[in-house]
Amino acid sequence: MNTQYFLQQAIDLARSNVMEKGGRPFGAVIVRNGEIIAAGVNTVLETKDPTDHAELRAIREASRVLGSELLSDCEIYASGEPCPMCQGAIGRADLKAVYYASPKEAAMKANIVPAGSNQNVPYQYVEMANGSEPFELWIERNGKQDQAK
Ligand SMILES: [Zn+2]
């Protein structure tokens, strides 16, 4: 098993998602110790959920399979270059490596707008008297250590 083999699995998932389900051309697999433990395809058109990207769906499945929010000993193989949202999730899950087969320019050429491409959504901090209360509650109940790292 090598990098090209796992990338081909991701590409095959992307192809079958287009051909059999009319979905967008993205697939991803997560590999641990040389074995595929989770896979996902983009189901945004079907579910209307803008977060249903192949990488996120594969991460969710891998977390369920391993019973852990951290996938530190896993790699992800994606048919296309992960978007900013998936890059964030990949970092959050602490995956150890990312491999992709097609750069984002290919998706843009296919007129598929990368998620997270709107950089103009306004974010605003609002000062609230009890705004940090949930964190204080957490510390009260758990100390300052999170179970994750
Ligand atoms: Zn994505």
Notes on the protein architecture:
This protein is α+β, with helices and mostly antiparallel strands. The protein is 41% helix and 15% strand. Strand 3 (74-78), helix 4 (84-92) and strand 4 form a beta-alpha-beta unit. Bound molecules: zinc ion (ZN). Residues 53, 55, 82-83, 85-86, 115 line the site of zinc ion. Residues 53, 55, 82-83, 85-86, 115 line the site of zinc ion (ZN).
Tally of strands: 4
Strand content: 5-15%
Small molecules in complex: zinc ion
Query: Topology as H/E string?
Result: HEEHHEHEHH
Largest β-sheet summary: 4 strands, mixed
**Shape estimate:** globular
- The average pLDDT value, as a whole number, equals 92
Taking Cα atoms only, what radius of gyration do you get, to the nearest Å? 18 Å
What gap, in angstroms, lies between the N and C termini? 30 Å
The helix-and-strand class reads alpha+beta
Number of helices: 6
Helix content: 40-55%
* Strand line-up in the sheet with most strands: 2-1-3-4
Uncertain segments of ≥5 residues (pLDDT<50)?
none
